[in-house]
Structure formats: structure tokens, C-alpha cells
Amino acid sequence: MTESAPPQTAPAWRIFAIPALLALTGYLLLYGCDRHLRTRHGPWEVTFLTEATGTPALRIAHPNLGIPAVTLRFPEERLDPEPPSLPDTVRFDQPRLPVPFGATVFDDLMYLPGTVVLHCFGHEVQLLPRALYLNRREHPWRELATVDLHAADKLPSLTPAPTGRRPSVPAASSRAIPGTDDTRRRQGPDASPAPAPAPAPPGPPVAAPR
């Protein structure tokens, strides 16, 4: 009678390699899908320029979302000196990109085009896919073509305060114990020290033990 051969077990590396390979494949597929969803619409494109009259302006466009070019003009502002790189188109596909004038104060670019907030000459310009916010007022994209932003439209919180001497604020004085040297120095050299508390009245006599 012949004995049956013992069953062969799989190598130990297969037990760990196959699940790891499946997890890596799933991660790459999910990462590729997520990356496509985050970048499929593309970033905001903003062109910084100056007109022939010297007026600075922004031209905003996003063809993939069907947003036509919208021009924001600042007729009461001038650039001195004017940047030599104008006109310059900035694609907001990375956070906190430098701009030729103004500043990028906020951006959320997780899913493009995301949200971009610019501060230019005391005005706040917020780009969202559904609407354009100018100085925190909503304007639908389809109703815009050219918008003039005047000085009267500036946000008070973004307007620099006038320079000048600030009034002095007295420093808070620390508490002092009455009658101490510190109190006498605060009151002056002629101030008399605070009177000492009166002694307590004597109690009834205690009879001596017999």
C-alpha cells in the first residue's frame, strides 16, 4: 500500500504579494479617476493688462464652463511703474500664484476651476463657477461683459487707513499695597503714609487655674 504525498503549501511570499498587488492596482485606478475629476474642467484664466489710456483691467475667461470673457476695469487707478510683463495671463492651477498687480488672498483648487479671490486696488474679486462676486455682491456670469469698478465701490476693510499719529493710550497701572514704598512713590513725596490699622480691643480676662 503506497502512502499519499503530503499536500504542498503555497510559498509565504505569495500570501502577502497577491493582496499587496491587488491593493496597489486599486489605488492607482482610484487615484487616476480622482485626478481626472479634479482637473477635467481646467483652471481659471485671468489676463492682467492695461488699456491704451493706462487703465488697469482684468479679463476673466473659462471656455470649458461656457463662461465668456468678462473684463473688469479700474478707471480711477494707475500702475506706477507699469509692470513690463503686461499683458500677462495667469492660469490658476497651483495655489497662491503671484500676479502682476493686486494679490491672491485665497484659493481652493482641489477640484478645478475651484475658487479664487483677488484683491485689486481695494476691490475684492471672487471667482466661482456659478457666479462672479465683486466686492461681495453676486453677479451671474451670463449678465456680464465689461464692469467698471470705481473708488466708491471699494470695501472699507480693504481701504488703507490714513496715516497719522495715533493717540497715546495710558498703560495699565499695577495694583499696590497701601502703605508700601511703591504707593508712596505713586502719590508723591509729600503724601503721608496710610494709617496703620487700630489694634483689636482686649478680650475678657482669663482666670488662672487653681
Write up this protein.
This protein starts with 11 loop residues before the first helix and ends in a 23-residue tail after the last helix. The chain has 210 residues and is α+β, with helices and mostly antiparallel strands. The protein has helices at residues 12-39, 181-187; strands spanning 45-50, 56-62, 67-73, 88-91, 103-108, 115-120, 123-127, 132-134, 137-139, 146-148.
How many separate helices?
2
Rounded to the nearest angstrom, the radius of gyration is 38 Å
What is the tally of beta strands?
10
Shape: elongated
Order of helices and strands: HEEEEEEEEEEH
Strand order of the largest sheet: 4-1-2-3-10
Helix percentage range:
10-25%
Structural class: alpha+beta
Report the average pLDDT across residues: 79
Please outline the major beta sheet. 5 strands, mixed
- What is the end-to-end distance? 119 Å
Strand % is 15-25%
Uncertain regions: pLDDT < 50 for 5+ in a row? 163-174, 182-186
